[in-house]
Amino acid sequence: MARAAKTVFVCQNCGATAPRWAGKCASCEEWNTLVEETDTGPPPGSGLTKASKGRAITLESLKGSSKRTPRIPTGLEELDRVTGGGLVPGSALLIGGEPGIGKSTLLLQLASAIAQRGGRSLYFSGEEAIDQVRLRAERLGLAEAPVGLAAETHLSTILATLDAEPSAQLIVIDSIQTLWSDTLEAAPGTVSQVRAATQSLIRHAKRHGATLLLVGHVTKEGQIAGPKVIEHMVDTVLYFEGESGHPFRILRAVKNRFGPTDEIGVFEMAGEGLRQVKNPSELFLGDRDASAPGTAVFAGIEGTRPLLVEIQALVAPSALGTPRRAVVGWDSNRLSMLLAVLDARCGVSFAQNDVYLNVAGGLKITEPAADLAAAAALLSSFSGKPLPPETVYFGEISLSGAVRAAANTAGRLKESQKLGFSSAVIPALGEIEATGISLDLSRLSHLKMLAERVTACD
Length: 458
Hints:
Number of strands: 22
Radius of gyration: 26 Å
CATH architecture of the largest domain: 3-Layer(aba) Sandwich
Organism: Candidatus Filomicrobium marinum
Pfam families: AAA_25, ChlI, Zn_ribbon_LapB
GO molecular function, one term: ATP-dependent DNA damage sensor activity
CATH superfamily of the largest domain: P-loop containing nucleotide triphosphate hydrolases
Domain RecA family profile: 68-218
Low-confidence stretches: none
Region (Lon-protease-like): 354-458
CATH class of the largest domain: Alpha Beta
Helix content: 25-40%
Structural class: alpha/beta
């Protein structure tokens, strides 16, 4: 006798289930996220079609020799940097980004690069017709690449096609939210459908040693849509970032089981597709106006890569009862804290001024060491006096106004020296390997020292 279909209500935000509908999810407390779904059976390819008796397995010890994880070079050095040296056979990667940011372009270039190197690449498009993908390939000059292309969203059809192509080295699914299984009575993009499709595809990839690359939609907050369990299931999670008004794109790794996290790759969107940027520091500083007040160069670290970027500040008298604070590319809470420290510890008040802060080039900075550069830019705009153009800044500022040491000081200084800077304002504490560094170093122990220096400069 067939098992009766079970109806449950699944939260589309966190994946929690409930026996009946409610306005608010009891797990994540989000409103109007419960959707009725009917589970009529396990997804295809999951291996759960019937109950089986388990068997005892042999336990291994931590000590012993292990094989080094093999890598597949992609031909895109920036992508290899982010993934830790190339793609790992049998691994699953999830890439998310805003619509139109260039995800499909990047993956088509990747699939073509693998195919041109002799590998078998399969590209399943669930959002575009075959003719649309072909037009993009012609624009990118990749029409001759031997990539297997299909426009399909039915999970069983895709799995049957993959079983007929056991030698596939790369499998691209664009996107995972468009797939559906007829064993689940739920709309495509719901938690049950996305989870079932991801589980089945990962199982196939690990069984055949293929690299699986999934595209994920993002929410209005910038997070990959669907439950967090999807990000736990895959081996690597990549975010493709960028501003619509800038040609620069940042590929950032936030999870990587086979390499470092918080590594970035820099691309530039051009007519012929995404172009790799070998020296992003020169790119972000290319249009810099060093004579204008309110600009400071921050020597940062993104993953293992030193990166110099310009921080711009504008302080203007406010006609509002509550002055405006606007930030692009930095944490607004961090700006509020920095303004409070400048007021309480340095006697510089911005209470009657609107404050605007921008990270040039569309880059998003999360590193606390950007505090000192942001403070220098704010003080420069407030006093109307430009900072020395050949100086870089980095250091974390505490609530007491003390300037705290930053990690990888030597790497920041070497990158600054390579790009022609002659001096650096850095924290007083922290050891520096002075080998090959000829910069004029100014060490600060308190933010008040910087405030006095900036307001007193000619």
